[in-house]
Design brief:
This protein is mainly α and about 230 residues long. The protein has 10 helices and no strands.
């Protein structure tokens, strides 16, 4: 636990430094530097999310008094989620509609970075911006989809069991889910439209969520993004 605590403190400090950099100097960074920041943020998020997973939280719940929250890294995951979404949103906000066709999500992000490094045309500002936006779109969609899928799977489990652990985990993780849903309200509407097929089934499973803040954020998302798609 001491090792995890030390790593968490270090990563919280690093998150603060990255947040300051992306707020003050983002427009001055090169594309590869921006990608590196995205990758660092994602690695910290994955570490926190793994520690905060349902199985791990459930184990620690049984090791802690009922009246206390189990040890978790929700503060780190929450801060990382906010910064990561902000970075991805500002990178993709003006992404043009490419005839309504989604980017191939099956392409490896490592391959994307390698292509960026090796492609001589990447030295051109326009080409550089387009490739960076494409990488950011894939990262944004993948991250939102992952959080929504985990939340929807937990929500489906609520109706299948009376296990209170699931309710407690959903309650603990609801701030992260809300951050992602609210972040999706500001997602480039062309990106949202292109990936609606992936998002919609996951979103509808959260309609009956017991957490009112999740349902409220979901309502905001439907009003902002889905209403715009109606004829």
């Amino acid at each position: 636990m001491a090792t995890v605590r030390g790593k968490c403190i270090t990563q919280l400090l690093l998150l603060g430094a990255i947040d300051s950099i992306q707020k003050k100097y983002w427009s001055k960074l090169k594309a590869l530097q921006k990608i590196a920041i995205m990758d660092v943020l994602l690695s910290m998020l994955e570490f926190a999310a793994s520690y905060n997973s349902y199985s791990n939280l459930r184990i620690r719940m049984h090791q802690s008094p009922v009246e206390r929250q189990p040890p978790n890294l929700l503060r780190q995951e929450s801060a990382g989620t906010s910064i990561y979404l902000e970075v991805l949103q500002k990178t993709t906000y003006k992404l043009p509609d490419k005839k309504g066709q989604p980017l191939e999500s099956s392409a490896s992000e490592d391959a994307d970075v390698t292509a960026v490094q090796n492609d001589s045309s990447f030295t051109g500002h326009s080409s550089e911006g387009e490739k960076l936006e494409g990488i950011a779109e894939r990262k944004l969609v993948s991250f939102c989809e992952q959080v929504l899928r985990e939340a929807s799977e937990l929500q489906c489990s609520v109706g299948e069991t009376t296990n209170m652990d699931i309710h407690r985990v959903l309650e603990l993780r609801s701030p992260i889910i809300v951050k992602v849903l609210k972040g999706m309200c500001y997602m480039n509407n062309e990106i949202f439209r292109r990936h609606l097929r992936e998002f919609y089934p996951l979103l509808t499973k959260l309609v009956c969520c017991d957490q009112m803040d999740v349902r409220g954020a979901l309502g905001d998302l439907f009003r902002v993004q889905l209403k715009a798609l109606l004829p």
